[in-house]
Design a protein that fits this description.
Strand content: 5-15%
Number of domains: 2
InterPro entries: Malate_synth_C_sf, Malate_synth_sf, Malate_synthA, Malate_synthase_CS, Malate_synthase_TIM, MS_C, MS_N, MS_N_TIM-barrel_dom
Structural class: alpha/beta
CATH topology of the largest domain: TIM Barrel
Shape: globular
Largest sheet: 8 strands, parallel
Radius of gyration: 22 Å
EC number: 2.3.3.9
Strand order of the largest sheet: 7-4-3-14-13-12-11-10
Protein name: Malate synthase
GO molecular function: malate synthase activity
Distance between the termini: 19 Å
Family: Belongs to the malate synthase family.
CATH architecture of the largest domain: Alpha-Beta Barrel
Number of strands: 16
Length: 534
């Protein structure tokens, strides 16, 4: 506990090895200053999210480009800050959680950037949150190693990737740190602890405090982050504009405000990233009452080349390059297999995906495994030539309308029993792994994170709600889904054996996929019980 004149900070999580190096009184006070300054605005913005979702569901206020910010979009005089040290060349970025093994492997992977993920790839146990901060603390000071079970020791090489940390989204709280009894914003815990301990050290090493910002829904949420950066820099005496942020465009509402998001963060922005599963989840969440025109086919059929996804990614490249920001492509989640045939097929698909992004003008892209770094790098090396990026590729040929972004019906495809079962199977497996403390789980040769569970179970919710017919004409009902769920549960349980959390995973899936409402699995009762006990 830290006592201050105007507030009280309580750390409710259990003590761990070296946790006191991160949870110092000064660091906690810094987090408290941030949270006290912005807690009210954060709550107001979350309330505004709910109101906007209700407007979209009812059709009361359709989604479109904002008339009130047209002047920002039409003004050609502004651009974002120039690239910061270590972020000029982002042709390959690797993503993953902040455990010690991943920290060493990611930094040594040959990627230009490591997205050190406190968000979707991290199960937010108290241990994972603080241990992740310790691992980054050590890595930045070149004081980290990892030894395998076979006794092989790994240390950081001479040219490690640039670290870009991803805090949790505005919608989550960290219940293990409380100010006057209320939980602190998880975003500000992750950002604040990392910034407080490492900003000066990063600058001394020729880099800087860089962040990925997830789940933003509009430019006002970007403005809040910008104000957080200003206060944090001022509190620590760090020059204004030192922070750099890359915003994930992974909600349908943010896709209509990309230019405004760049503008709000213009002295701190590095670029935008094109997400996938969270973006599709956002489409379903906001338009679930709009019937068949917004019903999507099997998850595997919703590729980045379907018209509404292609419109969003091409608009992202044009918007970024118009303002001098980097455009970063989406995830290649494949995990190299021991089966050469599986590898050959998957790697060809990865190559095609990265070639499409490079040809579209993206400046770099994501991979989830070190084994994919060479493929991605080779593709972008060829596209970039001797240049560090493609900022000169303005894509002025791209014209995207609101109708293009909302043309979900053009995705085509079908819903199949195999697709339903695949969603159930992967959701059960992922939520089980997540409840056991693993946020990035290898499932069926893919690296899956929380976004996987969200899209997998919300698609099923959408199909049931709309009475969607399978390929044989059978309507997908709740009863039929439960029969599939029970069969998949038995299959997964027989494979995983003892020590699993499949019972809780089943409860979460049932609550979030088969109920009347569409909550995030991260806000369920089972999740709340898990978080308060871990």
């Amino acid at each position: 506990m830290v006592e201050k004149l105007n507030y009280r900070i309580d750390v409710c999580g259990p003590a761990g090895d070296r946790f006191d190096e991160i949870l110092t009184p000064a660091a906690l006070d810094f987090v408290a200053k941030l949270d006290n300054a912005f807690a009210g605005r954060r709550r107001e913005l979350l309330d505004a999210r709910r109101v906007r979702r209700e407007e979209l569901q009812s059709g009361e206020k359709p989604l479109g480009f904002l008339p009130e910010t047209r002047a920002v979009r039409d003004d050609s005089s502004w651009s974002v800050a120039p690239a910061a040290p270590g972020l000029e060349d982002r042709r390959v970025e690797i993503t993953g959680p902040t455990d010690r093994k991943m920290t060493v492997n990611a930094l040594n992977s040959g990627a230009k950037v490591w997205l050190a993920d406190f968000e979707d790839a991290t199960s937010p146990t108290w241990h994972n949150v603080i241990d992740g901060q310790l691992n980054l603390f050590d890595a930045i000071r070149r004081n980290i190693d990892f030894t395998t079970e076979a006794g092989k020791r790994y240390t950081i090489g001479d040219e490690p990737a640039t670290i870009v940390a991803r805090p949790r989204g505005w919608h989550l709280v960290e219940k293990h740190i409380r100010i006057d009894g209320r939980p602190v914003s998880a975003s500000l815990v992750d950002f604040g602890l990392y910034f407080f301990h490492n900003a000066r050290q990063l600058l001394a090493r020729g880099s800087g405090p860089y962040f990925y910002l997830p789940k933003l829904e509009n430019h006002l949420e970007a403005r809040l982050w910008n104000d957080v950066f200003l206060l944090a820099q001022r509190e620590l005496g760090i020059p204004r504009g030192t922070v750099r942020a890359t915003v994930l465009i992974e909600t349908i509402t943010a896709a209509f405000e990309m230019e405004e998001i760049l503008y709000e963060l213009r002295e701190h922005i590095a670029g935008l990233n094109a997400g996938r599963w969270d973006y599709i989840f956002s489409v379903i969440k906001n338009f679930s009452s709009h019937g068949a025109d917004f019903v999507l086919p099997d998850r595997a059929q919703v590729t980045m080349t379907v018209p509404f996804m292609r419109a969003y990614t091409e608009l992202l490249v044009r918007t970024c390059h118009k303002r001098g920001a980097h455009a970063i492509g989406g995830m290649a989640a494949f995990i190299p297999s021991k089966d050469p045939e599986i590898n050959a097929t998957a790697l060809q698909k990865v190559r095609q995906d990265k070639e499409r992004e490079a040809n579209d003008g993206f400046d770099g892209s994501w991979v989830a495994h070190p084994g994919l770094v060479p493929v991605c790098r080779e593709v972008f090396d060829e596209a970039l030539g001797g240049w560090p990026n493609q900022l000169g590729k303005l894509r002025e040929d791209v014209v995207v309308t609101a109708e293009d972004l909302l043309d979900v019906a053009s995705a085509g495809g079908e819903v199949t029993e195999a697709g339903v079962r695949a969603n159930i199977n992967v959701a059960l497996r992922y939520i089980d792994a997540w409840l056991r403390g693993t946020g990035a789980a290898a499932i069926h040769n893919l690296m899956e994170d929380a976004a996987t569970a969200e899209i997998a179970r919300c698609q099923i919710w959408q199909w049931i709600r709309n009475g969607t017919k399978l390929e044989d004409g059978t309507a997908l009902t709740r009863e039929l889904t439960v029969s599939y769920l029970d069969e998949e549960l038995a299959s997964v349980r027989s494979e995983l054996g003892e020590g699993n959390r499949l019972g809780d995973a089943y409860e979460i899936f049932t609550e979030t996929a088969l109920g009347e409402k569409l909550p995030s699995f991260l806000t369920t009762g089972a999740y709340a019980r898990y978080l308060t006990t871990h």
